[in-house]
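Predicting holo structure, flavin-adenine dinucleotide bound.
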Amino acid sequence: MKRIAIIGAGISGLSTAHAIERLAGEAGLDVEVTVFEREERTGGKIWSIKEEGYLCEWGPNGFLDSKPMTLDLCDHLGIQDRLKRSNDNARKRFIYSGGILNRLPENGPMFLQSKLISWPGKIRLAQEFIKPKRTDGVDETLADFARRRLGAEALDKLIGPMVSGIFAGNPETMSLKSCFPRIHELEQEYGGLLKAMMKMAKQKKAEVKAGKQVASAAGPGGVLTSFVGGIQELTDSTVKELKGKVLTSNAVTGLKAIEGGWELRLADGSSFDAEVVVSAAPAHVLKELTWFLDGELSELLDGIPYAPMNIICFGYEQAKIECNLDGFGYLIPKGEGCEILGTLWDSSIFPARAPEGHVLLRSMMGGAANTGAIELNDVEVKERTMGELKKIMGIDAEPDFVRIFRHQRAIPQYIVGHAERLEAIDERLKAHAGLILTGNAFFGVGLNDCVNAANIAGEQVVSCLNAMH
Ligand SMILES: Cc1cc2nc3c(=O)[nH]c(=O)nc-3n(C[C@H](O)[C@H](O)[C@H](O)COP(=O)(O)OP(=O)(O)OC[C@H]3O[C@@H](n4cnc5c(N)ncnc54)[C@H](O)[C@@H]3O)c2cc1C
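Done. Tokens:
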């Protein structure tokens, strides 16, 4: 029997444990998987908090159904009947600009009519069609890419808000090819984004005509999906399904290579030996754990920064809100000078997240461009958020319900050089057989990306075990 230790019981660690048990079973390998978690609870960034009839998400709201990874995990766990798709009207997304909430255009005619982008901005955006593709292989920032292909206005009003919505990040530092590899590929493959969209739409039409089932030509898209009881059902169900142990309040404090495997030192002073170790802990934790093992690896991990974020949940009596909450919510361009990054209309996205006759709003504050927000006290966070909701949505009432969640290190930032850093990390790992890294610091921050990376880590563990035979 081979022992596998996993560090961290977020979605990455838990789905890795699940993948290992499944794949090892298929390969006829006898394994014992143990997951070590620093906190009292499992789930990491996933935490669905139910209070006073409100269902508040501490971290992620859900995953997109346009990629199969999380849905496949749900199949394996037998929890498909618990899935909850967001409302159809959650497709309506808004950008706060020029003092109003502008609906984000979803197609050409909507784009032409939209007041979000000025006519010069629209003309500049249309010129994307004739802009030559970049071929020098430079790891470009999201901002440089957007300015080069789409123009400065599209960067401010479309790309910037999208980057803060997904990464709480700063487009001036983040890498296009690491954050949005598909967009990078589209430019390289088709010569531009508009060209790619047109060719893919044509392809899709032909495939539909030929009777083939096809995914959306527009790329990621998809429907935000969660569970009846919130996204935590995903991690809770994974824990329940595991044959191995999940040991909470059990931080790993050290990592040492020993004959035939690894020794984990634990916070209570004890140790645990395993043939293979998978780290699904954040990069800054792994940096500490590898300090004595491999200084160079530790330094490489240290170079992955995280953005902080405050999440502010407000519950209101519906009658006190005049603003139409029919939609997903809004994001705010940096140039608007607001304290918050945006607000999700959580009880519109997933009904039954607020008591009858009430609504639940969830605002985000902070991110890479406003790191000081995490230092504000609760009164300041509440008052500043209320000020923004008054300005943007006209809400003058006191909320009936307030919860403030803080993430000192919310989301890893894939800054320029990330891909090279990953290659260098891979190179260092060659000297440490049986140490495998996964988690959101490396290959994508979305839940689908984490589950995908976990499946790959599971395959690596199995081939590692096979090599030991
Ligand atoms: C506010 C917010 C909103 C988000 N919204 C979405 C969304 O809507 N959709 C989406 O797809 N993604 C979203 N994301 C991203 C997604 O939630 C994360 O990328 C993902 O949950 C990360 O999972 P993980 O397991 O890699 O890391 P984590 O969840 O951070 O798990 C790491 C675990 O390691 C543990 N740990 C740390 N140190 C040790 C140690 N020494 N020993 C043992 N254990 C340790 C931690 O306690 C933690 O449980 C959001 C993220 C945030 C912060």
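Residues 50-58+62-89+307-412 form a domain with the Polyamine Oxidase; Chain A, domain 2 fold (CATH 3.90.660.20).
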